[in-house]
Amino acid sequence: MEMRYLEQTAEALQQRINMVNAALTDINYANMTLDGIEKEKENSELLVPIGGSSYVKVKLADPNKVIIGMGAGVSVEKTLPEAKATLKERLDELEKTMHVAQQQFSQVAERINSGRGRLENLLATREGKP
C-alpha cells in the first residue's frame, strides 16, 4: 500500500518537474527575446514566430515598452528593464521550486528503492524456507 502511494507521489512530482521545466524554458525564451529587442531601434523590422515554424514581419513601435502577463488573464505595460526584472524574479522562484521538487523526488525515489529492497529480501527469505 505504501509503495503504491510512493509511486503515485513520485509520478506527481515528475509531472510537476516537467511543468516547471516548461515554464523555465518559456521564461528563458522571453528573456532572450527581450535581450534581442533591447538592441533594436524604433521601427526596426522583426520576424515574430507565430507557431508551426511560421513568422510574421512586424515593425517595432517602441522597444522600451513591453506588455507582460501578471497572471489570471491580467497584463500590464512595463519598461524593458522592469519587464526583465519581473522575468528574473519569476525565473528565480521557478528555480527554487524546481530544486525543492527535485529534492522531494529524490527522497521518494530512495524510499521506493529501499522498500523494493526490503520486499526482495523478504521474498528471498520466504523462497529459501520450505
What does this structure look like?
The protein has 130 residues and is an alpha+beta fold. It has a domain at 2-40 and 80-128. 66% of the residues lie in helices and 20% in strands. The protein has helices at residues 2-38, 80-128; strands at 45-51, 54-59, 65-71, 74-79. A hairpin with a 2-residue loop joins strand 3 (65-71) and strand 4 (74-79). The radius of gyration is 24 Å and the shape is elongated.
Helix content: 55-70%
List how many beta strands DSSP finds: 4
Briefly note the structural class of the backbone: alpha+beta
Write out the strand line-up for the largest beta sheet, numbering strands in chain order: 1-2
Low-confidence stretches: none
What labels describe this entry?
two-stranded antiparallel sheet, two-stranded antiparallel ribbon
Layout of strands and helices, then pairs:
Elements: H1 2-38, E1 45-51, E2 54-59, E3 65-71, E4 74-79, H2 80-128
Antiparallel strand pairs: 1-2, 3-4
Helix pairs in contact: 1-2
Provide a quick synopsis of the model.
It contains two helices and four strands, in the order αββββα.
